[in-house]
Structures are given as structure tokens and as C-alpha cells.
Amino acid sequence: MVSRVLIIGACGQIGSELTNTLRIQLGVDNVIASDIRESNEALVASGPFEIIDAKDFEDIKKNVLKYNVDTIYLMAAMLSATGEKYPEKAWDLNMSSLFNVLNLAKENTVKKVFWPSSIAVFGPSTPKINTPQQTVMEPTTVYGITKQVGERWCEYYFNNYGVDVRSIRYPGIISWKTLPGGGTTDYAIDIFHKAISDGHYDCFLTKSTALPMMFMEDAVKATLDIMKANTNDVKIRSSYNLSAISFTPQELADEIAKQIPEFTISYTPDFRQKIADSWPNSIDDSSARQDWNWNHSYDLEAITNEMLLQLKEKAIS
Ligand code: AKB
Questions:
Q1: Domain 117-137+170-317 has CATH 2.60.120.1060
Q2: Which residues contact 230 (CB under 8 A, 6 or more apart)?
Q3: What is d(CA 128, CA 123) in angstroms, rounded to the nearest whole number?
Q4: CATH fold label, 5-116+138-169
Q5: C-alpha–C-alpha distance, residues 96 and 193, integer Å
Q6: What is the pTM of this model?
Q7: Which of 73, 143, 240, 298 is the catalytic position?
Q8: Does residue 94 contact residue 149 with C-beta atoms inside 8 Å?
Q9: Which of 46, 298, 307, 11 is nearest to 178 (CA)?
Q10: Predicted confidence (pLDDT) per residue in 234-267, tens digit
Q11: Three-state DSSP state, 117
């Protein structure tokens, strides 16, 4: 039987592309998109869409029953930079939405849950290079705290209630279709837009701030791979480290300048520098590669080529 999925937060950066790919794989009517508002016209027009508040258990349940949903992807969250501006709201949204979905699985209303964690789960005391799967975790952002606590609850619901919850720790995700909202890694997308429109980018991180990053195609693939993996192969039920590449703003700027030689970059670090400084430079994701055969495809050159090509085309169309 084909799975029927509900995506909560479907208008967002990752949610929108996950929805499109799932609609191709499962059929449009088997993928119910939802968000707190209709903020992505193309997405709303592309198949079933419901306004759902991720903090409202009954709202989610009503739609799960209406569409006979068996799997939920919870993509709604307040990210690191916005979370620092609204700490209580970030805690409230990120935790209540997770509990709503875990509890629907606990009562067997849905069978499977995907919930994203992040490299934000790590903190300044974590080893920075090739950060291991299991290590010191003392996040200093509210977003990171919600991810760390969320991971503990995912594992708890799996161990104690048999909830089939699966999770990966996303690095910064680079994409061109939908803009990201309120993250620290957003510079790696802003820079492409500004390179094309202005030939110059003023970066909010220093030139040598290395962060783990990944292209959207790889992120969507990882998400679907872990969801398709055999239950017994998903050995980690908190969240898996996931990695593709790591680079600094300067390295990214140099790569862009290979194609736009007149491109220049300046650096004006703001409050997001402190967040970036608390995160790893690179991630050891050997558990994901071993347990469910994770493999990335896009390196820095391929990402840069694809971003510039697609955004230039979008600018003239
Ligand atoms: C952010 O920067 O907050 C996110 C993340 C790394 O989870 N992109």
C-alpha cells in the first residue's frame, strides 16, 4: 500500500522541496502539504494543502484522520538566529510541535515520524573537527537546546512506546528554490543572490568561519533514505550526524569568483558569529553511511555551478 504523508511546515526551505519530491514519488494526492499560512503559492497550488498550526494537537489529528495519513514529516521550526530573538517562542514552537507528532505516533494514529535535528545540537565544548556521533553536547542557542532535548525525547518515545521516529542532524542547507528563514548558515544562500544582483556581498560571518554544509538535493535524498531504511537498520533513534562538505565564507567567495570574476566580498560579523563559533567545523557521519548507506553527491564546485545557473535563469524568467 502506498504511504500517505503529511508535511508540516511544507512552505519552508526544506519542506517545499521535500513535498515536491514526495509528490513525484508517491503521487500528488498521497502528499498532504500544510503550513501555518499559504506563504508559497506554487506549493499550495501543486496538490492538497491545509492550514495547520504545528502547536495544535487537535488540528494535526483532524487532518491526519481526514486524509488517512500514516507518516508525518515535521519541518516546522524556529531556526537559530530567529530563535535568539524570541527564545520563549522558539522553545514553545519547537517543543510543542514535536510532542504533538510523537504523541500521535504513540497513540498509533500515525505509524512513522521524521523530525529534523541540526548541527546546532552541539556547542562550544564539542570537538570541532570531525565531530563524532556521540560526544559532549552543550548547545548555547535556544534552537540548539530544543534540538538536544528533542533528540532525547525521540529516543525516549522509541524505547518506551515503540514510536518509529527517525532523525538526522542537518548541516546548513543550500538551495535556490525557496529562501531559508532565520538561520545562521543562511549566508551561504544570500551570497549567491547578491553575487548575481550586486556583484558584492557583505557577510555576517568572518572569512574563516568554517561550517558543515550540504546541497538541497542531498538533504532531501538523506531524508527520504532514512525514512525508507529497514527499521532494524535505523540503529540511532536520537538523531544521525549527517555531512557533505565544509567551507568558509572566503572559500565560497573564491569559488563564486571563478565564475563572476568581478565579485567582491566584505565581512561585518554580527550576533550570528557567536552562534557559528559554537558549532562544529566538520562532522563525522560514518554511522549514517554505515547504517543506511548515506552518501552525498554535491561538492563545493557542483553546488556553486548549480546555484549560479539556476538563480541566473530565475532572474531572467
Ligand atoms: C540554522 O542555521 O539555524 C540552520 C541549522 C544549521 O540548523 N540552518
A1: no
A2: none
A3: 9
A4: Rossmann fold (3.40.50)
A5: 34
A6: 0.97
A7: 143
A8: no
A9: 11
A10: 999 999 999 999 999 999 999 999 999 999 999 9
A11: strand
